[in-house]
Amino acid sequence: MYETHFGVPMSGAVLNAINTRLDARTVSVLLKHSGSKLVIVHPASLQLIRDALHLLPPAGHLLAPRVILVEDPYYEENNNDDDSCIHHVLMTYEDLLEKKGDPEFSWVRPASEWDPMVLNYTSGTTSAPKGVVHCHRGMFLMTVDRLADWAVPRRPTYLWTLPMFHANGWSFPWGMAMVGGTNVCLRRVTAAAVYAAIARHGVTHLCGAPVVLNMLANNASTSSETIPAGKKKKKVHILTAGAPPPAAVLQRVEAVGFEVSHGYGLTETAGLVVSCAWKGEEWDRLPASDRARLKARQGVPTACTAAIDVVDNETGRGVPRDGETMGEIVLRGGCVMLGYLHDDEATRAAIRDDGWLYTGDVGVMHPDGYVEIRDRSKDVIISGGENISSVEVESVLYGHPAVSEAAVVARPDEFWGEMPCAFVSLKDKDAAGSVTPADIISWCRDRMPRYMVPKTLVFRADLPKTSTGKIQKYVLRKLANDMGPTCKGETIE
Amino acid sequence: MYETHFGVPMSGAVLNAINTRLDARTVSVLLKHSGSKLVIVHPASLQLIRDALHLLPPAGHLLAPRVILVEDPYYEENNNDDDSCIHHVLMTYEDLLEKKGDPEFSWVRPASEWDPMVLNYTSGTTSAPKGVVHCHRGMFLMTVDRLADWAVPRRPTYLWTLPMFHANGWSFPWGMAMVGGTNVCLRRVTAAAVYAAIARHGVTHLCGAPVVLNMLANNASTSSETIPAGKKKKKVHILTAGAPPPAAVLQRVEAVGFEVSHGYGLTETAGLVVSCAWKGEEWDRLPASDRARLKARQGVPTACTAAIDVVDNETGRGVPRDGETMGEIVLRGGCVMLGYLHDDEATRAAIRDDGWLYTGDVGVMHPDGYVEIRDRSKDVIISGGENISSVEVESVLYGHPAVSEAAVVARPDEFWGEMPCAFVSLKDKDAAGSVTPADIISWCRDRMPRYMVPKTLVFRADLPKTSTGKIQKYVLRKLANDMGPTCKGETIE
């Protein structure tokens, strides 16, 4: 996967890193939509690709992509592999290099820096994936901008907790090459594996959605000593984005010894284009909870981002910089995608006049110019005419000492139209007896306006997530919908 | 000067930072050539500007630029100022901001990223300055590329030893703003002032030509303890470029406690586009002298540099990567200038087919892809058909314990055509009695081929330098020329 980030564009082709956790049907849709000619696959996903190829329509079958298999001597879970897979494989990756490779090959430079370089299907907090196309110019800008903004030193040791198929790992395949970094990969991202890699390899940097931070914070007690006692006694830097991190999670993971940087971006911007630039000693002096609250804000435009604004949906004008008035976050800059593949309509809806990208995220602009996300447009709960930010309710839920994860969605309400419905998992799965939904509702009542308090609160062992660790709100929204409307005066479930 | 790097381009104008150490005649030539409309000047240079304006031809006088004076309450050396200066001044800088400024002003974005942003007159190892024009795009690339390549952390403390009028301080006015750096400025760059600033302000980063490194190394004994005992016990990082640093100087300045990074660029590339990327532990293990020798190589292209090569002047083809065959260094990339102002002929000579910039520097390509400069084209000494690199001879001279600075130029020779002529200053000015030219010639004989040994060696108290600390070889070349040709068998002077 790492090598393809170089070899594929340098051969003049477009790289489409596919999420290996998708199902065969979706993969077949992507292969057809992208018109892929060649698939490079690891044994762990060979069955998936075989099934996907079988699902291609018969006419398309003749044009089915060729399959190159990456042999993996350390991969031992392939006992269940069906031998019938093999006839799909044209050759192995090493054979391809050995037999078809040319050491004198001059890499194919793009005719224009605007030529497409990568295709990324949105991993989907919605169920309809779209093919985001980025050009060489955008990837270059993202790479150098990210290194400069995160202040990545030379020769870091980088742990791949963020998959490379997610917006090309926020450009770090190229970035790590640029600074001479060491790449450490994991078969499976667990807290134990991360702490072991930090101790064994002296990991200095890793990326992940807030769910990864939460996992590390919740599992620190057994292994927290590995961070200071690791091979190198360096701070471990975590860059987080992909969802608004609850301040309580930031505070917990920093208490364990990680140094968190927080930013914001979309697949449509190839990675982070907004960064919560830290104001040094001025903010260092504040109490931990205030620091976490400031760090939970998405931040200011990075150098590659020409402009950002929060606009009123009706008028298109910027909202007041008061930290309260909600609007849609829009931005312009060198990292905005060329567009969605084969979808001019969606492209026109996303990129409007003068190149402004409409992100679909709802936020506020603080007086100091920092943007803070309140919600995805579709996640805003509209209750009796009031807009309720699900993110705000969640951040209070995360503050409860027993809560591991929380997600709030709209549930129909007979009187108010919608009311907040919270899904919560507990840190200690056996604690469900001692902590009740009513306890947690009561915690909310003490900390937010009455109209924002969840009317429904459901305990679940786990919350449904995308492969990149984003909670799938559309799944929860369906669950809440299926519960039927709450009635006036109904008590908590 | 720092503010103008933002305000001038953001008002839609082009910034031309003028070297304040030039004479009035040259400044008047630059003002006329650039068609300057506004001059912002510090009291220390007001007399210079007045004289320059007087030298503008009468017709041009009507179009003479308006003068804005930066008042400086801490500047006390203006007793000699002529009151007649004042009538040239339109208003003071603070008045300009106060009376003409508009807090609601929307800064003027360039219509195209290729629009000119800065004009830099080459400071001149030759005596004919040319006006290098760079665009917004190039300045952006240089800024982020330099931060990423030098791995500048957030909120560094940067000491301005490199003047901002020299290729816009290699883009660090913008770079320091981007990372929230603290800028420390000096009235006059002396070793004592630099060490004092490190101790007082906790300086973490500074830039300078090798002559600055040499100054710091030679004056370390009196104040070396200030580095470890400074306000912050951080390494002080020095970025050097502008001339090939002798390995002996690198070794000395690192012994004092500085960490040196070395790169290469030209005014025509807006700063450093080649960087001696350090190969980590592989090179850390080597003895100090080997490390210094490796670090003295100019290096590999940075991320903003598309390609670099060393080509044969006759054929235009790349020379063998053997570290021996000399050729002209050529490069392409996003930081190459738009061209020379009002000088299409010089532009065409510098930027040739497909955007290759011909640097005029002679170098070799090492087998590992690192470029090393051997000389400026015009500084190569051709003796009996052999090309002698003045830089190579100088690096041996710098190795002599008594030598402070050395410069080698061609002197005519009746038999060989040219022979090396060395100008040397000693660390201890009073040591001239105990160390003789013959001692140093003898040191050279033990360390280089016979034909490279200087036939003439002259002790001087100081070597002539440009304002940016480059030794003015054209001055020395004239001195050597005026000595007349050496004869076969002539002994050392």
Any overview of this molecule?
Chains A, B: Residues 392-470 form the AMP-binding enzyme C-terminal domain. Chains A, B: Keywords: Ligase, Magnesium. Chains A, B: It comes from Eleusine coracana subsp. coracana. Chains A, B: Its cofactor is Mg(2+). Two copies of one chain form a homodimer. Chain A folds into three domains: 4-109, no CATH class; 131-376, ANL, N-terminal domain (Rossmann fold, 3-Layer(aba) Sandwich), CATH 3.40.50; 381-482, GMP Synthetase, Chain A, domain 3 (2-Layer Sandwich), CATH 3.30.300.30. In chain A, 29% of the residues lie in helices and 24% in strands. Chain A has helices spanning 4-10, 24-34, 46-55, 58-61, 93-100, 136-150, 167-170, 172-178, 191-201, 210-218, 247-256, 280-284, 288-295, 344-350, 390-399, 437-445, 473-482; strands at 38-41, 66-69, 89-92, 116-121, 131-135, 157-160, 182-185, 205-208, 236-240, 258-266, 271-275, 300-301, 305-311, 327-333, 339-340, 357-365, 371-376, 381-383, 386-388, 403-413, 417-426, 456-459. Chain A is globular. The interface between A and B is medium-sized, with 22 and 22 residues.
